[in-house]
From TrEMBL:
Coiled-coil intervals: none
Keyword Oxidoreductase part of the UniProt annotation: yes
Residues annotated as binding heme: C464
Protein name: Cytochrome P450
Provenance organism: Chloropicon roscoffensis
Cofactor(s) required for function per UniProt: heme
Family per record: Belongs to the cytochrome P450 family.
């Protein structure tokens, strides 16, 4: 039986090698780059792709090449080489394979957009994430989290007090992104609907595509004959209809008073504070433009799963590390108590912010960034690499492994350990990398402070534009839940890991929850008073 399965594996790997020829670019120079031992088929096992690449990184260094047949791609895990691609020479790279995968879903939205489209759209969208908008979002994050807290209160009344927290985090993140970006209440914490089903269907398809080396969806009539493609076509149609309708309504319901309030950044008097309202009212976006819909769709997908995943792994890490859990709870009780959180509280809850930052180091979302060189270039050799660097040709496909960067034993002490306080410690500069510059002053330790060894939200001009939004959302959701509940897992439970666009658990994040016995609060029972406040 073993021999038979081995033969099957060989046939499968050969098939993959042949078909993927059409997908990645031809070998385009880079002959001096160290070649990793391995085959494309090594990457198609039970193990997530980024884990297979980690072992190769340990053997082959911060810049290595993986060839299959006449094609290859370069895996970059070195801070200097990454800084070159993302920040020093970003105009020489586009999203390559990723853009091809995401085009049917996000069109020319910000993530897959080519450089020309991206320049115009980034300029149009970024002013929407201004301070007054983010301040207003803090309240929204809290209100949406209260729904989950309320649901958890109900679960605490039941005999079976086990809940899949990964699902709950994804639901709260979906409700927040819907309301914050286009004022649509998915209400997914408490119900299921065809639209929610379609959002998850499209997400699943996006993930399936990013982990499948055979672009079968490009085959003629695939959306007629392949059942999952038929399903995908239906799902994307449902979401597009909702978005088109929301854009139209936003334009038809423009109100003078709202325009004035928006103009003055007076969000207390704005009925609909969503980003869409800002784009339509303040930037005069054309409601018929497919581009606006593509950008909304991009933000729906980019801002939902990522935040859900960060919360999932943060809770997992805390439950595995009771000392860290105790420290973080002490901070939440001291700073927040039962108040609805404010922006000032987020600033005060430094330990919660560091927990989110450390979770993003150990479980970066996404674990791999994808680029394709638009012209010939030279990548820095980086730590332990060739000091003259490595030349690459036009068309080279690059995988930036954020997972490898964040777990590099050359950079991080006890790289696999969950230790949020590491962001308060100085790191010794190693070799040409240059290390931590000590300017860790914002809401989270960013890529500049760590000279591109730490990339929680990417870096350079294509850095995440929802970074503050996401960080604040995660801090509030986590703090409000930890204030009310204790979490534990059954002995021996392992969430496991699965990769798509983000890192998921393989088995869910099943937690037993119970109400905390809170000293100094009359409302030990729970949420009612908190909601009233
Ligand atoms: C881009 C991470 C939340 C919107 C990115 C990139 C990363 C990232 C790493 C860079 C991708 C690349 O260079 O290839 C995250 C994480 C989040 C998060 C970890 C949550 C914890 C959000 C939210 C939004 C958002 C809430 C929207 C409100 C975007 C957009 C881009 C992007 C539009 C493309 C930016 C551009 O190309 O100009 N994100 N993101 N993200 N993210 Fe996020």
């Amino acid at each position: 039986a073993f021999k038979k399965s081995k033969n099957l594996q060989d046939v499968f790997s050969r098939l993959i090698t042949i078909v993927s020829q059409g997908y990645f670019q031809p070998n385009t120079g880079g002959d001096s780059i160290p070649e990793a031992e391995g085959e494309m088929s090594d990457l198609v096992g039970d193990e997530p792709l980024f884990k297979a690449l980690y072992n190769m990184f340990l053997d082959s260094g911060g810049v290595f090449r993986l060839s299959f047949g006449p094609k290859c791609f370069i895996v970059v895990s070195d801070p200097l080489a990454v800084r070159h691609i993302l920040k020093d020479n970003p105009n020489n790279f586009d999203k390559g394979v990723l853009a091809e995968i995401l085009k049917p879903i996000m069109g020319k939205g910000l993530i897959p957009a080519d450089l020309e489209t991206w320049k115009v759209r980034r300029k149009a969208v970024i002013p929407g994430f201004h301070k007054a908008y983010l301040d207003c979002m803090v309240d929204l994050f809290a209100r949406c989290t209260e729904r989950t807290v309320e649901k958890m209160e109900g679960v605490c009344e039941q005999e079976n007090r086990t809940l899949d927290m990964e699902t709950e985090f994804l639901n709260v993140a979906l409700d927040i992104i819907g309301l914050g970006i286009f004022n649509y209440d998915f209400g997914s914490v408490n119900k299921e609907s065809p639209v929610i089903k379609s959002v998850y269907g499209v997400l699943k398809e996006a993930e399936h595509r990013s982990t499948t080396y055979i672009p079968y969806w490009n085959l003629p009539l695939a959306d007629v004959f392949v059942p999952r493609q038929r399903e995908f076509k239906k799902d994307i149609g449902i979401i597009n209809d909702v978005l088109d309708e929301l854009i139209l309504v936003a334009q038809q319901t423009q109100q003078e008073e709202d325009m004035e309030a928006l103009q003055n950044r007076d969000y207390k008097n704005v009925k609909d504070p969503s980003l869409l309202r800002f784009l339509v009212d303040m930037r005069g976006e054309d409601s018929t433009a497919k581009q606006l819909r593509d950008d909304l769709m991009t933000m729906l997908i980019a801002g939902h799963e990522t935040t859900g995943a960060v919360l999932t792994w943060a809770l997992h890490c805390l439950v595995q590390n009771p000392d860290e859990m105790a420290l973080v709870m002490e901070e939440i009780d001291r700073v927040l108590g039962d108040r609805r959180p404010t922006f000032e509280d987020i600033k005060e809850m430094k330990r919660v912010r560091m927990v989110i930052a450390e979770s993003l180091r150990l479980y970066p979302q996404p674990p791999i960034l994808i680029r394709r060189a638009l012209g010939d270039d030279t990548l820095p050799g980086g730590i332990g690499g060739d000091p003259d660097g490595y030349s690459i040709g036009k068309g080279t496909d690059l995988f930036i492994s954020v997972w490898n960067l964040h777990r590099s034993p050359q950079i991080w002490k006890d790289a696999d350990e969950f230790r949020p306080s590491r962001f308060d410690e100085a790191i010794d500069p190693i070799g040409p990398w240059g290390g931590y510059d000590g300017k860790n002053s914002g809401l989270y330790p960013n890529e500049s402070a760590y000279n591109f060894a730490y990339l929680p939200f990417g870096g350079g001009p294509r850095k995440c534009l929802g970074d503050q939004f996401a960080l604040m959302e995660a801090v509030i959701a986590l703090a409000m839940m930890l204030r009310r509940f204790e979490f534990s897992t059954k002995a021996g439970f392992e969430p496991g890991m699965k990769t798509g666009a983000t890192i998921h658990t393989a088995n869910g994040l099943f937690m037993d929850i119970s109400r905390r016995e809170l000293e100094g609060t009359e409302d030990v029972q729970g949420v009612k008073q908190m909601v009233a406040k």
